[in-house]
Design brief:
alpha/beta, 10 helices, 366 residues, six-stranded mixed sheet, 3 domains
Length: 366
């Protein structure tokens, strides 16, 4: 045969190997007897795998064990266990002299199996090294986390760059003068804009009443949710005269009455009670409201323009300071039904105009 053939990984019993060698030698002899010496110059080889120790076989093939002998049985018993005594032999014929030589011992075969298991096992096909599904999912999850981390880092870098740019611009404007040469920094300019947009308190004459049980009880005013507008019900009286009336109640004790502010018909504004204390103005709402009394000249109760302007300014300022809405500005009439202030109870359109003027009030530019 032209090329050596190799068996699979299973061990071959020693007796069967000896039988195969005897049959192979007999076949070769029959072929030689039929064909003569025409192929005497050729060299035929076959590789076999057998068990047993190498010292029990001669390299020239002269010593063989019979298939049924005790030697063959002993060798089969020692080699049936696996590849422990596996040896590789070559049977060849050269110059009409059959001989057998060992190609590899069991240690070399085992090392070869460790290096390439598929080479000794022809039934084992190379199906690759597929990765488990769990490993693929973990790798994809790590990749997604890495991408999210990169996006987060890029966003943080962008935010930091924007903040640095804005801070640098603010510092530059603060250090350098503006184009007009006024020398004001950005903080001063912004502060000025804020101040000009805020409503400043009106000019007020602070003249608090003396504490007493009839006009200034001294009870704490914890919150301000509404502002009530009143009229004095005494046409032609000034703000100072109405303030004196409230102060005299401590002596006369005829009734309890007062207000936080009094606006005169010339537009003057007198504060009688601090905004941290209650006044006796609306019986059911004294604990959460501020009251403003307004003087007038006409019998119908209409306010003068000076009184009207001061009232609008005062209401807009209180609305800003205590975060009130348009619905928080009320008439005494709206809580109890008393016709106060008279003109703005009888003329709803005038009251709506007053609320609109308070909502649209803007401070005058200096």
């Amino acid at each position: 045969m032209g090329q050596a053939q190799r068996s699979d990984r299973r061990s071959v019993p020693q007796g069967r190997a000896d039988e195969w060698r005897a049959q192979y030698t007999a076949q070769q002899r029959r072929r030689q007897s039929g064909t003569g010496n025409s192929r005497s110059g050729t060299r035929d080889k076959i590789s076999l795998i057998s068990g047993g120790n190498s010292q029990n076989r001669a390299g020239n093939g002269t010593q063989r064990s019979r298939p049924g002998s005790a030697e063959s049985t002993r060798r089969r018993g020692t080699s049936d266990g696996g590849l422990e005594n596996l040896e590789l032999w070559e049977i060849s014929r050269e110059d009409n002299t059959p001989r057998m030589m060992r190609l590899a011992d069991s240690g070399q075969v085992r090392s070869g199996q460790r290096r390439s298991g598929a080479r000794l096992n022809p039934d084992c096909r190379n199906i690759g090294n597929p990765r488990p599904v769990g490993s693929i999912k973990q790798r994809r999850a790590r990749k997604r986390r890495l991408n999210l981390y990169r996006i987060f880092v890029f966003l943080m870098i962008g935010v930091c760059l924007i903040l640095i740019y804005q801070t640098a611009g603010a510092i530059y404007h603060m250090v350098h003068k503006d184009k007009t040469g006024s020398g004001r920094g950005i903080i001063e300019i912004v502060s000025e804009k804020i101040e000009t947009s805020r409503i400043q308190p009106p000019a007020v004459i602070v003249d608090y009443l003396e504490p007493n049980d009839f006009s200034r009880p001294g009870t704490e005013l914890k919150k301000i949710e509404s502002v009530f507008v009143h009229y004095t019900a005494n046409p032609g009286t000034s703000a100072a005269q109405n303030r004196s009336y409230f102060a005299n109640l401590a002596e006369t004790q005829e009734r309890s009455a007062s207000a936080h502010f009094i606006i005169g018909y010339e537009g003057e504004l007198i504060q009688c009670i601090p905004l941290e204390e209650q006044a006796y103005a609306v019986a059911t709402r004294n604990g959460d409201s501020v009251s403003i009394e307004c003087c007038y000249l006409d019998e119908n109760g209409e306010f003068t323009q000076e009184t009207y302007d001061t009232l609008v300014h005062t209401l807009a300022w209180l609305k800003q300071e205590y975060h009130l809405s348009e619905g928080d500005i009320l008439r005494h009439y709206d809580c109890g039904g008393k016709k106060c202030p008279l003109y703005y109870v009888e003329h709803e359109d005038a009251w709506e105009k007053l609320l609109a003027d308070v909502e649209n009030y803007r401070p005058e530019k200096p």
